[in-house]
Design goal:
It holds the Pfam family adh_short. InterPro entries: NAD(P)-bd_dom_sf, SDR_fam, SDR_oxidoreductase. It is a single chain. It contains 5 helices and 4 strands. By secondary structure, the protein is α/β, with parallel strands linked by helices. It has one domain (about 5-135): Rossmann fold (3-Layer(aba) Sandwich). Strands 1-2 form a two-stranded parallel ribbon. A two-stranded parallel ribbon has the order 3-4. The protein starts with a helix and ends with a helix.
Length: about 140
């Protein structure tokens, strides 16, 4: 939610809903949203590979806000189409589709909706990050 579609989706949500809970790697990228919506935007730094911290952030969110109504996963377009040289990236994105379908069933009884955003190709900062990763790949 700190760049690209995640960022672009967050601002309209903040204008329309009570509270938006989000996670990022770096709060500096969204300081404008934190400043503009100090009571509506609850953003936590989170490394999603750190399972205990993920559990802690979810528990703290429930304690602070009482409930979660909608989960949005902004997976990008990599789950819709695959390109050579990006097999691991696309594998994770295809996996996100199955993950979201499963989570949707798991949280349905709690009245939580799950939305997976796969908007297709667009001009975001993603392409620059991908280029940096490509530079690190062995030939």
């Amino acid at each position: 939610m700190s760049s690209g579609f995640g960022y672009e989706l967050t601002k309209p949500l903040l204008d329309k809903v009570d509270t938006v809970l989000g996670t990022v790697h770096n709060k500096a990228k969204i300081s404008d949203l934190i400043t503009e919506y100090p009571t509506l935007f609850d953003c936590q730094i989170l490394d999603v590979t750190d399972t205990p911290t993920v559990h802690q952030v979810v528990k703290e969110s429930f304690v602070k806000h009482g409930e979660i109504d909608v989960i949005i996963n902004n997976a990008g377009y990599g789950g819709q189409v695959a390109f050579p040289g990006n097999s691991m990236y696309h594998a994770t994105k295809f996996g996100i589709e199955g993950f979201c379908e499963s989570v949707a069933q798991e949280v349905e009884s709690f009245n939580i909706g799950v939305t997976l955003v796969e908007p297709g190709g667009a001009r975001t900062e993603f392409r620059y990050g991908s280029a940096q990763v490509a530079d690190l790949m062995p030939e």
